[in-house]
Amino acid sequence: MKGSITCGALALLGIFVCATPAVAGKNDSDITLKNKSRWAIHELYLSSTGDREWGDDQLGRHTINTGDSFTLTGIPCDKYDVRLVDEDGDECVVENVAICADSESWKITDHDLLGCQAATEQ
């Protein structure tokens, strides 16, 4: 079940979004995540903002190590809650992320992860 924790301002973490892979549609998005933090990212979940459950881990067997990138494709237009888990098991949740017909590259930094994790723990 999804928790009610949130990161607060999306501006702090305008760095990652993902979705369940689907057949790409005209308005689907691609997001490339670039890990510029000191921590490997082991799990990445999302759910539509109105859902109570998290979706599957979008990374599957992949890990986004420091300096690596990972691209999520075919993200359907929607508003998502996103949950990220790093190598230490620390998690970060960002709520209500609107994604539609984008092709973006977002960078995850130490500052982003630490700020979001602190806000998520409150």
Outline of the structure:
The protein is mainly beta.
Would you write up a description of this structure?
With 122 residues, the protein is mainly β. It has one domain (10-121): Immunoglobulin-like (Sandwich), CATH 2.60.40. Helices cover 10% and strands 38% of the residues. The chain has 1 helix and 6 strands; from the N terminus they run ββββββα. The protein has one helix at 110-121, and strands at 29-35, 41-48, 69-75, 78-86, 91-99, 103-108. The chain has a 3-stranded mixed sheet with strand order 3-1-6. The protein has a 3-stranded antiparallel sheet with strand order 2-4-5. A hairpin with a 4-residue loop joins strand 4 and strand 5.
Topology:
Blueprint: E1 29-35, E2 41-48, E3 69-75, E4 78-86, E5 91-99, E6 103-108, H1 110-121
Parallel strand pairs: 1-6
Antiparallel strand pairs: 1-3, 2-4, 4-5
> How many domains is the backbone divided into?
1
- What fraction strand? 35-45%
Averaged pLDDT, please? 79
Low-pLDDT regions: 4-24
Structural class: mainly beta
CATH topology: Immunoglobulin-like
Tell me which oligomeric state these chains represent.
Answer: single chain
Q: Give the beta-strand count.
A: 6
Name of the CATH first level: Mainly Beta
State the main characteristics:
three-stranded mixed beta sheet, Immunoglobulin-like, mainly beta, three-stranded antiparallel beta sheet, 122 residues
